[in-house]
Specification:
heterodimer, A: alpha/beta, seven-stranded mixed β-sheet, six-stranded antiparallel β-sheet, 6 helices, globular, disordered N terminus, B: alpha+beta, four-stranded antiparallel β-sheet, 8 strands
Amino acid sequence: MALATDSPRAAGVDPMVPRFMPVRDIWDDTDDTFTMELDPGPAGFSFRPGQFNMLYLFGVGEVPISISGDPAVPGRILHTIRGVGPVTTAMRDLVAGDLVGVRGPFGTPWPVGLASSRDIVFLAGGIGLAPLRPALYHVLNHRADYERVALLYGVRSPRDLLFEDELSEWRGRFDMEVGVTVDTADRKWRGSVGVVTKLVPRAPFDPHNTVGFICGPEIMMLFAAEALVKRGVRATRMYLSMERNMKCGIGLCGHCQFGKDFVCKDGPVFTYEAVHPRLDMREV
Amino acid sequence: MRSPEEVLTEHPFFKEMKAQHLDFLVSVARPLHIETNHFLFRQGGGADCFLVLDEGDMAIELHVGAKGARIIQTVGPGEVVGWSWLYPPHRWMYDGRALNTVNCLCLHGESVRKHMEDDHEFGYEVLRRFGEVIVDALNRTRLQLLDVYGTGD
């Protein structure tokens, strides 16, 4: 199922032409992950939770990166990036004032409106917390519109935890449940050890009135969705953010084709019901 | 601390178990109260029971030489701990340490094994339920082995 899309084209902007934005700040989140704050200028930058931008580093290349900031703060564009390839590794060396080319926002958003008046479970794995954070901000900014809110987050080790300060803050709230688990730890870690699906059976939500937003490595999303199904959450009420090799961002080039869909245009957010038959297909 | 009847009746592991089977398990259950950082069992020690967690969390740890203790997994209320009582040589493979105050039941392994032999219907029920726990643990372990959050392939 394709969801409504906000696109640069709809805003009268040529989606293939990058806008230049200076880096306002850049900081490390973990050993291999950093957040880059861009200055969109006085006009600001509107996006919806779950959308992504194509970020262009001149002379190096362009990469799709989810927006990780608060959609209610249009003057501050945040991207949380893992330095793994030539472009993202080079981006880490940027400093305040350097220019980045930005195309976007692209893609379908997390359907935060459909989740209103329901329990909502965020299931994040690794850097998958970054694309979910705008939806979390939205839900917390409109807390009265939702019933119970739970964030279940799994990472490789305690040193890989993203947004630790915010996790602590969210954990301290009386209107939100936060579960964190790591794959491996030594005795200094006082929390849960095990895969993120382990947190699902004990999470406080009514499966018959719950919407699930899942983001992380594909295999983790598959297991997470199955854990929610086992609890009784409907496949039509679970949403996954898919990742493919996105290039143009507008469904022209075909690099991100995923069966009948283009992830950049028809996704990245899909219902589990729509994508789960394809998750097991080797040919897709 | 709740009575063994209350714990076993409400614990998901024993859901829909026949009353006479539950009655037997209650008869071999011993309540345990463990303070934070105390060990419920130690690697290599005799595994004469399995634990039914009611309150609190525990870490299942493996001592890996100079690297010290690594936490393999944590378990909490609604879970059962221990398969070593089922098969010879009946020794714990890991350490079990309380991460906070733990209230649990210790079910006597030898008595349960004997009853499983005497009453095969009961034996099948126990093995079926432990089979699900073991399969679940195996799947989780496979996911952990994949290192899905790593950068490499």
